[in-house]
Design goal:
Strand order of the largest sheet: 1-2
Largest sheet: 2 strands, antiparallel
Number of helices: 21
């Protein structure tokens, strides 16, 4: 049954391999510097490493956009995204898998009545704009730098050819690694909240987490997609947009790889923070947009001549229609799966304004006569709550407060469940605080938060500039909410 649910994720992985592998080796294969079979082998191996070792970073942003909390829902969302990408691939368009999964998740949000986190959506859409621009800038800088080096150094034609082939292989491997690290979130990120896998220990002391197991399975599916179907799109990327020489092909792949790695590396993000710089958002960016941006960068560096604007128009139209199409397909498919196959595609969360909640809200400086209109009200989902609250004239910040305090999630802190959890990332003070609330029961998530934060300040959130700390705390709380939930 688990493999059946994951099959749509495997389909999406196959689609990503069939489509986005062109962004890694399309230019090299298109310029006939590397044979397709060799390119496919290198891409598959490097991609698996990137997915397993560094794939977790970008998946957090997708989880914030919408936490698909049932396996049947995750199956349907991934299937909708995969179907969209496959259709676009059939049309020989290097579309964005990132855009497809984002559109499909928003479709799930609309169907389940869950809010779409606008902060996360804005972050993702902003990177969609920055991604091709950044790739174009990298390509222009690298092209001019390499051109200047080649003009000042005399290299034999055969030696230059050998260096270029090696460079394309190295660039392709880096590109595949970056693709796995950044885009595996598109394939398996939607399954993380409902992951069926437990952590396992390898060689005695190496932890292989449930998330990494998901990423490995997804990466293997991507590898199959590379071998079986990616040659079609490689032609479009490698030849149709703009004719590339072997050297410019190398520049394009390196530029594309840098952009993907920048938005996937937790280590690079931590380094920026240590230097006092703004943290880089870890977002699954569009590999297709990065490669197209890099190719256009080369074209503009050469005077913007011979660009096939007709092909560019088709690609750009695919970028616009992909998230919309995926969202519509996702919504319709979820309705079909829930009503025809009678499967739960989302876990319901109701919102109840009990006397306990009203007491807590009384301290929030909200107009008392308007607040009383919510007393004893219960909503089936957050969308209903928000619509009703807006009609009463409350602003979005206050509505966020309502959602936080009224979200029901009955929990009991059971010793047996606590003993089964992986708490390696928890501090000693956090574990001691948990031990002090054994057997306690809570109706709302905020009650657990207040109980723990009063026991230890290591359970308390910090100010907004401590983004990484707060994100880790979010993940820890979510682990507890899911583990102790009374279904």
């Amino acid at each position: 049954m688990i493999l059946l649910y994951l099959s749509s994720g495997l389909f999406l992985g196959w689609s990503l391999g069939a489509n986005d592998a062109a962004n890694v080796f399309g230019t090299a294969v298109g310029t006939r510097m590397i044979k397709f079979k060799l390119a496919a082998i290198i891409a598959a191996l490097a991609l698996i490493l990137g997915a397993v070792l560094e794939g977790a970073g970008a998946s957090h942003t997708l989880g914030e956009l919408g936490a698909v909390n049932k396996l049947a829902g995750a199956f349907t969302v991934a299937l909708a995204a995969a179907f969209t990408v496959t259709v676009m691939t059939r049309m020989k368009l290097p579309v964005s898998t990132s855009q497809a999964i984002v559109g499909a998740i928003i479709g799930w949000n609309l169907f389940s009545g869950s809010p779409t986190d606008m902060n996360s959506l804005t972050k993702i859409v902003t990177t969609w704009v920055l991604c091709p621009i950044l790739a174009a800038l990298f390509a222009i800088i690298l092209y001019k730098l390499i051109k200047k080096i080649l003009e000042s150094v005399q290299i034999h034609l055969l030696t230059m050819d050998a260096y270029t082939r090696i460079g394309l292989i190295v660039a392709g491997a880096l590109g595949a690694y970056s693709l796995g690290a950044n885009n595996i979130a598109n394939v398996m990120g939607v399954f993380i909240p409902a992951s069926p896998f437990d952590d396992i220990m390898l060689l005695g002391n190496i932890r292989f987490s449930g998330t990494q197991q998901l990423f490995l399975i997804g990466a293997l599916a991507i590898g199959v997609g590379i071998f079986t179907y990616s040659a079609r799109v490689m032609k479009t990327v490698g030849k149709d947009i703009f004719r590339l020489s072997p050297v410019t092909a190398f520049v394009v792949v390196i530029s594309h790889s840098l952009v993907l790695y920048i938005f996937a590396s937790q280590g690079l993000r931590d380094w920026f923070v240590a230097l006092g710089l703004p943290p880089i958002p870890l977002v699954p960016v569009s590999s297709s947009q990065a490669i197209v941006g890099a190719i256009l960068g080369i074209a503009f560096a050469k005077g913007a001549r011979n660009i096939n604007w007709k092909v560019m128009g088709k690609i750009a139209s695919g970028w616009v229609t992909t998230p919309i199409t995926a969202g519509i397909i996702s919504f319709i498919a979820l309705f079909f799966v829930q009503n025809v196959f009678d499967l739960d595609v989302y876990r319901e969360k109701s919102y109840l304004f009990s006397p306990l909640v009203m007491e807590r809200l009384a301290d929030a400086n909200i107009e008392e006569h308007k607040l009383e209109l919510l007393s004893e009200m219960e909503f089936d989902n957050q969308r209903q709550l928000r619509r009703y609250s807006r009609n009463l004239g409350f602003d979005e910040q206050i509505i966020d407060t309502f959602a936080f305090y009224s979200a029901r999630n009955p929990m009991k802190i059971r010793r047996s469940v606590l003993a089964s959890l992986d708490l390696d990332d928890f501090s000693r003070a956090q574990k001691e605080a948990l031990a002090e609330i054994i057997t306690e029961e809570y109706e709302y998530e905020w009650q657990l938060y207040y109980a723990l934060s009063q026991k230890s300040d290591q359970w308390a959130y910090k100010s907004s500039e401590h983004d990484d700390y707060n994100q880790k705390l979010d993940n820890q709380y979510q682990l507890l909410f899911d583990a102790f939930r009374i279904d």
